[in-house]
Amino acid sequence: MRTPALDSTEFARAEEAALWCVKFSEGRMTREAQQQFAEWLEERPEHRAAFEQAAGAWQEVHAAEASPDFLPLRLEALEGLQQRHRLRAARLARWSWRRRTMAAAAVLLAFAGPIVWWIQHPTTYATGLGERRSVELPDGSAVSLDAATRVTVRYTVHGRELHLLAGRAKFDVAKDPLRPFSVAAGDRVVVATGTEFSVELVNRRVEVVLYEGHVSVLGPAATIAASPALQTHAAKRHVERTASQSLQELAPGHVLDAAIAKPEVAIAAIDGTKSLEWEAGQLEFVDEPLVFAIERMNRYPGPRMSVADDHTGAIKVTGVFTAGETRAFIEGIAAAFPVKVEVDGDTEVFKAKDR
Amino acid sequence: MPAAAEPVLFELGRRIRPALLSYFLRRVRDPSEAEDLTHEVFVRLAEGQLEGIRSIDAYVFQIAANLLRDRARRLKVRDSYAQSLGPITDLPAEMLDPARIVEGRRSLSLLVARLRELSDRTREVFVLYRIENVSKRDIAEAYEISVSTVEKEVAKATAYLMLFREESE
To answer: Which pLDDT does position A275 carry in this prediction?
Structure first.
């Protein structure tokens, strides 16, 4: 990698573009400054591209700020600021020892507070509608969050405790036999050592997909049952085995499906790549009840959807949809099934067609 | 504007305004029109209810896309739809491409290493301004430099990251 020379023309241009980012980030510019910006853009064709690059770099920093890699830099900067404040305070005024301590403490509280909090408390990672993000944890494990997902992470000397509060996330666990990695979702807990798996909360169910390695799923006295209701939830998967124990081992390439507050659990083989399609912005449904399909689609931008009754919700949907293209989804469903869509406030409600 | 929304919008602006302007500049050539549209997004944000919105970024770009649509419609009516409009998508591609995001995360340690190459003052000012949201004036006071020097330090660090980004692509 070539280091850009700080005195090059290239660097000077990048600096000019970045300075416009600073000006814009503060709010509306004066007409005069706007005029100058327009002139600067017209001055050279490269300026437009330079500004675009600068805006991209500007945005990327925001993506970095929650990362543990960034933490030392933040602590150092805050310490630097404190030190400057202390030096200034000591020089500018003949403050009493007591007042100076109080001022330093105030500065410490104001600036170091959020960071101390970050270390001691569980960190929450969340995504909004249509948003996806990937987070690297301090031990090298990685978490990919699907849209509308919320995960808290707490690391202690004894273990790595995660909690999936909503949505779906995939976990790529760094091996550390001394600190088990656990993900709680609903009333189930998935325990792993070094592995790759995903956990999803959908319609009061917990779904665990294991891609690699081994995990154990702890449930409230879980019973593995080959119930027809579970088979219809994912017709492609076939229920493979039954058992009756509260701790369930899962083999790679398998999915575990559990209803919250119910002991039944179904384990089935899956096509390993299918469930990862959400990471690429595609949602695939195979004989999935409409109500589940809607819950998944609702994680992306677009009108909210719901069903008017259980009968409509039970319609089996098959197809590949692009996340966020709610219109195409609604039109596709309305064309294929005897349903109509009515608008109720800001929600599109699927209803059975009148006969 | 409700008083509580102001600091939220200010922080959001500091982070997202440049990207928003760049988004508009790619679609409308005229910089002052792009700036007006950027401003209009914030006017709408100030008018709207921000509570209960799960992804503010997605919401911001949705407003932006709607403004572009309205504009295209207006231009069509005036029969002067000669200006070239880029493809309008609800969200900019970079926000929806997880591969790119993951890739971005992987280069984070490199980004940190890059910032380490800068002088202490440049790095600290940059981190305080961009990440800790300390105001320019507070930074200027603490470091006993002018506000415009603070701006230059932030720009310098940004430019450094920007050229590094270009090369690693």
So the answer is: 57
